[in-house]
Amino acid sequence: MRYNAIDRNLFIKNRKNFATQMVRRSVAVFNSNDTYPIGADSTLPFVQHPDIFYLSGVDQEESILLLCPDAKNPKHREVLFVRETNAHIAVWEGEKLTKARAAEVSGIATIYWLADFEKIFFEVMTQSDFIYLNTNEHYRQSEETETRERRFIKWCREKYPAHQVAKSNPILQALRAVKDAVEIELIQQACNITEKGFKRILSFVKPGVWEYEIEAEFLHEFIRNRSQGFAYTPIIASGNNANVLHYIQNKEQCKAGDLLLLDVGAKYANYSSDMTRTIPVSGKFTPRQAEVYKAVLKVKNEATAMLVPGAFWKEYHEEVGKLMTSALIDLKLLDKTDVQNQDPDWPTYKKYFMHGTSHHMGLDTHDYGLLHEPIQPNMVFTVEPGIYIPEEGFGIRLEDDVVVQPQGEPFNLMRNIPIEIDEIETLMHETHM
Ligand code: GLY
Ligand code: MN
Ligand code: MN
């Protein structure tokens, strides 16, 4: 792997936390992602499924993790199955996990080749009444493809119809939402790489550059710093493109006087970072752009302070909506009568700020987290308000990633990424001289 080795105690602890929540006489299984085909013989680069990675650290296709805390054979309480490597694979694809290496990465003592799975699974299933299946219950999931996990579920229910089914996902959503110190450090590293990318492009952006050239600058900086690349498809949106929320074409030329919205984050060791900055193409904000920018920054800072233990995600969003409403009145984008007559189910501020303020962030950019439970220390959230004004030809969003603290304000993992107007103008000016 391109990233440095991760302390296997993280995965040992994660499995222990999961296993403690399993009912007696039960088995849980977690599968790798497929390597997805494109056409002919080409495939997308392999990306590990975050759940099996979280529980084992194994970053390889065709791996299966099996947990059976009550297995009669103590060796079968935790088992990892990996693809058997051979001389042909070594020549064509390079190094794969040996049994010893898989044990070292994961902290799991029993490693078998994949071919042994059905036999061992049969053994532990006959000693169990429940099978934990890993479905995807993320609030934004939309899977059309039949994943490897899904195929396993189909096979398992067909083969073992008498077992009772339990759900892994709610356990994982609760566990993965609260980050370990090791995970926070990995997310910090992803943010630090994003910072390097942003600082690089501050000296690159000027009237006439193309959005895709900026994308290339980010990627160059990310990869030379051991990142796997973008954590999500980057949005490099100048002028009115910023008002298309998921603009990913990145194909236009940046014009003098326009703002440029950059929603870009590096991935490191499978952990995301998720940053947005909005900068002036010419290196200086107009008074109106600066006025709106300051309003977005103020909402961001005030919203961040509300991410404290015990707060609820839904109420937090309602409060941010109120902050945004008053900001939009000050900017003369809304008037008080609009607000008095607003539909409570679609408050009027949504005309200019139509997306959520925060999401959990971690192995997934839009990470797991049970959204109806109180916020806890060591949850990592983005804070990303925006104001989008197509009639004025610009949109502004600012986004940082923060860690909820036991007391007081969250810790900002992007504290070193320039965000104040003066800072950005000075940095852009210095490098344009
Ligand atoms: N970049 C995706 C998001 O901000 O949620
Ligand atoms: Mn983002
Ligand atoms: Mn985000």
Question: What are the main properties of this structure?
Answer:
Creatine Amidinohydrolase, Chain A, domain 1, globular, single chain, 6-stranded mixed beta sheet, alpha+beta, 19 strands, binds manganese (II) ion, Creatine Amidinohydrolase, 433 residues, binds glycine
CATH class of the largest domain: Alpha Beta
- The coarse silhouette is globular
CATH homologous superfamily caption of the largest domain: Creatinase/methionine aminopeptidase superfamily
Instruction: Tell me the domain tally.
Output: 2
Major sheet attributes: 6 strands, mixed
State the helix count: 13
Number of strands: 19
Structural class: alpha+beta
**What is the radius of gyration computed over CA atoms, rounded to a whole number of angstroms?**
24 Å
Helix content: 25-40%
Distance between the termini: 40 Å
* Average residue pLDDT: 97
CATH architecture of the largest domain: Alpha-Beta Complex
> What's the arrangement of strands in the largest beta sheet?
6-5-4-1-7-8
Present as ligands are: glycine, manganese (II) ion
CATH topology of the largest domain: Creatine Amidinohydrolase
Low-confidence stretches are none
Strand content: 15-25%
